[in-house]
Amino acid sequence: MSTTTANSAAPAPASAPAPKVETPFRRFVSEFAESKLALFGLIVIVLIALIALFAPWLAPQNPYDLAQLDILDGRLEPGTRNGLDTFTYWLGTDDQGRDMLSGIMYGLRISLTVGGGSAIIACAIGATLGLLAAYAGGKADTVIMRLVDLQLSFPSILAALMILAFLGKGVMNVVLALVIVEWAYYARTVRGTALVERGREYIEAAQCLALPTRRIIFRHLLPNCLPPLIVVATMQVARAIALEATLSFLGLGVPITEPSLGLLISNGYEYMLSGKYWISFYPGIALLVTIVSINLVGDQLRDVLNPRLKK
Amino acid sequence: MNRKKAAAMAAVSALVLGMTGAARAQNLTMAVGAQVTSLDPHYHALSPNFAVATMLFDTLTQFDAAAKLEPGLAESWKVVEPTVWEFKLRPGVRFHNGNPLTADDVAFTISRVPNVPNSPSSYAIYTRAIERVEVVDPTTVRFHTRTPYPLLPNDMSQVAILDKETHEGAGTDDFNSGKVAIGTGPFRYVNFRSGDRLDLERNDAYWGPKPDWAKVNYRIVVNDSARTAGLLAGDVDFIDQVPTSDITSLRRDGRVRLAEKDGLRIIFLALDHLHKDGSPFIAGNDGKPLNKNPLQDLRVRRALSMAIDRQAIASRVMEGAAQPAGQFLPKGAFGYVPGLEAPNSDPDAARKLLTEAGYPDGFRITLHGPNDRYINDGRIVQAIGQFWTRIGLRTSVDAQPWTTFISRAGKQEFSAFLVGWGTSSGEASSPLRSLVATYNRDKGYGTSNRGRYSNPEMDAKLEAALSEMDDEKREKLLQEATTIAMQDVGIIPIHIQKNIWAMRPTLRHDSRADELTRAQDVHPAAAR
Amino acid sequence: MAVYLLRRLLQSALVMLAMSVIVFIGIYAIGDPVEILISPEADQMERERAVRALGLDLPLWMQYLSFLGNALRGDLGRSFVFNEPALQLILQRMPATLELAFGATFIALLVGLPLGLYAGLKPNSFGAKTVMAGSILGFSLPTFWVGLMMIMVFAVQLGWLPSTGRGQTVDVLGLRWSFLTWDGLQHLIMPAMNLALFKISLVIRLTRAGVRETMLMDYVKFARAKGLSPARVTYVHVFKNILIPVVTVVGLELGSTIAFSVVTESVFAWPGMGKLIIDSINVLDRPVIVAYLMMIVLMFITINLLVDLAYSALDPRVRLEGK
Prior knowledge:
The complex is a heterotrimer.
Chain A: H1 2-9, H2 24-32, H3 36-53, H4 55-58, E1 80-81, E2 88-89, H5 100-136, H6 138-153, H7 156-167, H8 171-198, H9 201-208, H10 213-249, H11 261-269, H12 278-305
Antiparallel strand pairs in A: 1-2
Chain B: H1 3-24, E1 27-32, H2 47-56, E2 61-63, E3 69-71, E4 74-81, E5 84-89, H3 103-112, E6 130-137, E7 140-145, H4 152-156, H5 164-167, H6 172-176, E8 187-193, E9 197-202, E10 215-220, H7 224-232, E11 238-239, H8 244-252, E12 257-271, E13 282-283, H9 298-307, H10 310-317, E14 322-324, H11 347-356, E15 364-370, H12 377-390, E16 394-400, H13 402-410, E17 416-422, H14 429-436, H15 456-466, H16 471-487, E18 491-503, E19 507-509, E20 522-524
Parallel strand pairs in B: 1-10, 1-11, 15-16, 15-17
Antiparallel strand pairs in B: 2-3, 4-5, 5-7, 6-7, 8-9, 9-10, 11-18, 12-17, 12-18, 13-15, 14-18, 19-20
Chain C: H1 2-30, H2 33-37, H3 44-53, H4 60-72, H5 86-121, H6 126-140, H7 143-157, E1 170-172, E2 175-177, H8 182-215, H9 218-225, H10 230-267, H11 273-282, H12 286-314
């Protein structure tokens, strides 16, 4: 949910002329732009997304094509020319002779797909179930919350590990595993807030007006549950990407031939002590920048979207 | 900082280091990478367990550092009849509790081995050849075998001898709790925290060379980087399984000394010999399955082997911690075939062979392997993927955790896959029998022959070797069998791993080919 | 209340039952433990013996039923690998993990609450912005990478702290605890910090978000209008209200921290339950995996229940009876 708002806000900085009529959207845009840091984060995210999208045209090498790799070019320092003298490894190479710059560009694609994809799906599922549980109460609440308990009591790494063992490695499988692991967080958060909100007067008023349940849930209850949901969603995107990295660290996650940022980091992890820092360091920086930017934006979104913070 | 101050500080720190050095001299802290699952020496046949067992216990025969058989608790052994081996025990050996070692203890041990409850992997594989134990006198014991069995002294090197009086009725728990962790070995039990550490002290009454350490702290640190960091930080004195990525920098680091030894573990590719009409992970370039399995063709198998640049893998992926291999064992081992070298990398010839076999444009193949079992396994698989791509095969690579990988490999679900084999007996019959002999449940052949290679000619040579009591003739038969399997490319050998240990410069290590990390092999370095 | 508790307990039992079935099927699907445990030298006959010894020759449902029968008598089976009762293995390692998790939680609250309060009360100050930027960094860094960095800096470069492992322990109540010795504390600091990093950020953000929201609430405005001292407003009116989300999350996180210490424990070679479970998964030691998960489920259910109870105590608007 946060991601959709982020997307709708994307063209905002460019199209913000002096507001004549103050629509909610305009107000949202101008409030968002109040934080320079968040704006900067947004720009970085857009840049990163563009790099990820156009990686095949931007990268000097296709790191997935075994024919383009040469093991004799393995572990070269940043700035070395490649064996055929056709381009420079600006960020060095890993143990397989994979250009780190290209690897990071392609890795961004995978990390963003995994993080964003799983967050969107998990958020949609989790929020719906959480609202349902809080609003309907009774049996539905019990069933859903027991499911949440079951899910949350299953340590995510373990759950993901088992799911991946069933399904095998692969980007889509990791997304699926992360969704299964994470939807419960959304459900629990939404339910917690919705329980409190449900007792408030405006819901009672809406009920008195005999508005359709669906309308009450999605138009009245949901927007008021958004602030904590956005906090959680922000954290979960970061978490999803980090969890994927951790899964790779534990030897699962995405396949070795299509490394995500996480896998690149863990690949270079054991070279850290021996001074070949670049194999792990640069993907780490890329991961960090990505997550920090997402969080900066999410942070500001939360402040802006929270109705109770409005002056 | 001025020079005088620096010099003073250096002197002080040297003094401090010297003092701690003296205090430490009698103590040794080791960090090992593999989990020790039990102190019961007959519970789980696994080399980390066995390493610990050989610190607390002894065996009748034992391997020296180069994997040659030498006397242990038995002073000598000989064949009395083709089916009877006689072992002479070393006199005057006592267990840690003072009980003397007698032939009855040996008989008791042999009877206990197959009867350890719940054992997930029994040591009975080493005692099964024995039909009956005959106690001739307190220091003489005879083993009667069902058939002539030349490998009995080798097998006896794996079986820790227990004390009948102490261990009768003792369970695995009693060993782990330390209650009966009593052997004849160079160290005595002090304390064991499963999954964490084992504390030992010197057995001053040991029959062999006395260990240099009064106290040993044997820690289990599974994470590679944590082990190296522990050594560099000075928390431990000695580590095993040094990650290859650290070798280069540790070689240059004055705080550390490395010890290397060619191991007995071969890394190789197994190929699908089972499926005649199309292999599960091989397809034509159009993605459609082929109607026959290209791996059935010797020319294809040779091409796959010749495509691989083993030197590059050894130097680049393994950082020199591997020896390119053309057969199962390293030079000097029993059954090694002189002159059977690792094939040279020759992509052009490989491509030509593929063309001759009817695949001028190659085919699609997926190479599988584990990513958490052998040193750099995932990386080796990727590198081989590169080499195969270069001779025109569209190669995909799939490295999986061992748990999932090995179950699937055992069900013949793969076309080509990387595995390893550690020859604990140090001679060629073990890999031949397990890896390339025709799968046969009743004979116990081909247990790990997951590609189901089968060659009757080789089987015959091997079978003859396994009942040949004459060492010289047996070695010749084993060499012939090896040559047949290798020339037929039943498997594709890649390299033999080197084992690497790292320690403080004040120590030295008698490195062992069989990978065991034991406190008695660590010594203070000669005074400088 | 009693009815409510009873119902929760019944539901919990069902959850645990479901969990055990899932784990049984899951491990069955992953692979065959014997393939992993057995010596490569073993032949087919030895393999079959091992399968029988571990009771894996029976059909899955019979294995499950016999497990269930034993479990009802309090016996969760013996580890395939260690041949010790699975529950005992886990309990032996539990103090190490609890120590780590509580240490991390303690650090998180100690650092997180004041920083979050400060950032919430003075949202536009430079300090608050730094704190928030820091908190973003805190949960952006992958745990394993931070762990290695810490080892490299504090143990290898500076030599201040021991690199890995658990320090000296003392026996209290029959269990071994290391936080009571100086050596043990030294060993504990780095892993606990590593594990706390994420949670510090979490607490900071929750506290700050709560403070900012509460400050705008009418009752806070009234309190201020009444002329109460800023300190009283902050600590009595604001602080009490922000405790709700913080209690929820810290409660939830304690359980997950215990479960998730897997990574920290493997980086720092910390001999806790998390390391045991990863090792057990690697060798498919089913009795240990099942017992561990049952324990975690039980713990989680208890924590959730406590959180719910605390919730209703702190916020009377939340219904407990579920109707």
